[in-house]
Amino acid sequence: MIHVKTNIDRPSADAVSRLAKFSSATIHEAQGRKGALSSRIKPIDRSMSFCGPATTVRCAPRDNLMLQVAIHYAQPGDVVLAAAGEYEEAGTFGDVLGNAMKAKGLAGLVTDSGVRDTQDLIELGLPVFSGSVSIKGTVKETIGPINHPVVFGDEIIYPGDVLRGDADGVVVVRRDEIEEVIRLSQERDDAERELISLYKDGGTTIDLCNLTDVLKAKGLLVEQA
Predict the structure, then answer these.
(1) So where does Mg(2+) get bound (predicted)?
(2) Residue of 83, 92, 106, 220 with fewest CB within 10 Å of its CB?
(3) Is 220 one of the annotated binding-site residues?
(4) Any known ligand binding at 97?
(5) 120/210 same-domain check
């Protein structure tokens, strides 16, 4: 088995930039309510946001050896996604590795394990999304695969798939579907902006969401004042 694959297909930087205009929730809804990672995965600071192709790595629980190797092989703009068995009681990533990623121009770190040195990471400005925050140390013992498919947050992530993270969570977009998802996300964004404008002009939820017949069919009774 080849542990580390260095030649992966990534979408163009232009496509990633255009996808980044949309929120994780918009993308999730636009692509048919798929791709949302587990809601356990949250940013260490709500202002953090990223969009980039995934460098995937599978780590043993409480072991960050392969995470360090993945950072070495990741390319500028990549998001390092580290699957570690959802082991929460370990600080597998901190400010030292954060600085290593920042220096390489990597877009962010996503892990289902824990991270630490969060205040330093926030000040560094590197987007970090994790399953927990833990000060407990790790070992460097077990080798594993890099840039192979991984199961993460209830989704299968393939290397080169695009990850979009913001205050609400993380969504994955298949690399070969990015242009279609951009189109669908723009359509949804336009429709929502129009709806908001109509609300501001006095429109109501029942009228604008076409709920009259739905509510009637369900037998909703309203007491008239």
Answers:
(1) 117
(2) 220
(3) no
(4) yes
(5) no
